[in-house]
Structure formats: structure tokens, C-alpha cells
Amino acid sequence: MNALQRAAQGCHGCGLYKDATQTVFGAGPCPAPLMFIGEQPGDREDQEGEPFVGPAGGVLDRVLHDAGIPRDEAYLTNAVKHFKFVLPERGKRRIHKKPSDAEVRACRPWLTAELRIVRPEIVVCLGATAAKALLGNSFRITKSRGIVLDFPEIAELGRQRPRSVLATTHPSAVVRAPDRHAAYQGLLADIEVVAELLNSRGPRAKR
């Protein structure tokens, strides 16, 4: 994984590297029974070089704790490895901008390589961008969130692909929600499904 991370630092597969501070690769144990995939690093992640260290990461930490999932059992990454943003006319705060389909596709080989090395049993897609990166553009998170699905066949993974995938909202949606309590409870309910699935499978078999 270290070699893969070093290689990603020099990625020029799309233009996002030009303005981002650095590549923000995934972090966590390898192998890991559980893998979370977000959209892209935020402002804080871009500065620190670690995924999920900003406000959304705080929500994720809390929801993992409340669902009974140790964070050190989860590998955390993003579908896109560079921060995409716009600068407002006034002020210095960088504003998040959704990555394009082409930018998501450009990063897909890195995500596939992470899946191959981490070998998770279960993948959780946080938000629509991450879900579509794995499940296709026709996937609608509003219709299928919180539902355990069979992981799609990906040629590069072969028989080592994860067993299951579940999509839910991104923790940043909780931060932005008018009713944060309700948004948090919805996210927690979905992650509790993941916790139950992990517990039902018992110790992770070596593959």
C-alpha cells in the first residue's frame, strides 16, 4: 500500500492536481473487513493529507462509535484523491465543488487498487458520487440507501472482490442539514445495518 500511495502522489490523470495542495490517499488497516468510500477530500483533508479529519470526519467518528464499529477496523478513502474547489470573489475560504464524471473515472484505477489490497468484506459508499463510482451512474441513493447489495463484478478484482456494498449519505450532509439530529439518526441507522452484517459474519476469513 505504501508503494501505491507514493505512486498516487504524482498522479496527473486529471487537472485537479494543479490546484490541490496534495494527493489525499486512503488510510487504515490492510487488510480490513470494512472500507468506507467518500467523494473527495475537503479543505482540511487537503491541508493535512489524511482522509476524514474535518467536520465530516468528526461525524463519521461519532457514528462509528455509536454503531459499535471500531474505527481501527475500517479503511477510509475517497473516490477522488484531490480536493476540487472554487474560490469566492470575496474571502479566502475554498468552496467544495463536485467532481465531474471524468474526474471520478480518472481516479478509478487508484480506488480499484485500494480494493484489491485492502480486501474488505463490506464496502460503504458515503454519498452519491462514491456510490456511482462503484455502482454506475444509474444508481440512485435516494431509492437504495441503507440496503445491502451484492458487490458488482469488477474484472480487476476477480474473485477477491468484496461480498457486499451499502450506500448511505455522506457525513457532510449531516453537517449541512437543517435538522442535524434527524440527519444523524438516518446515517446511524444505515451504519448499524453494516455493524449487524459484520457481527453476523463473525471473524473475517482469510482470502
From TrEMBL:
Residues 25-192 form the Uracil-DNA glycosylase-like domain. The keyword Nucleus does not apply. Coiled coil: none annotated. PANTHER family: TYPE-4 URACIL-DNA GLYCOSYLASE (PTHR33693:SF9), TYPE-5 URACIL-DNA GLYCOSYLASE (PTHR33693). It holds the Pfam family UDG. Keywords: 4Fe-4S, DNA damage, DNA repair, Hydrolase, Iron, Iron-sulfur, Metal-binding, Nucleotidyltransferase, Transferase. This is Type-4 uracil-DNA glycosylase. SMART domains: UDG, UreE_C. GO terms for molecular function: 4 iron, 4 sulfur cluster binding; deaminated base DNA N-glycosylase activity; metal ion binding; nucleotidyltransferase activity. The keyword Transcription regulation does not apply. One of its GO terms (biological process) is DNA repair. It comes from Saccharopolyspora phatthalungensis. Belongs to the uracil-DNA glycosylase (UDG) superfamily. Type 4 (UDGa) family.
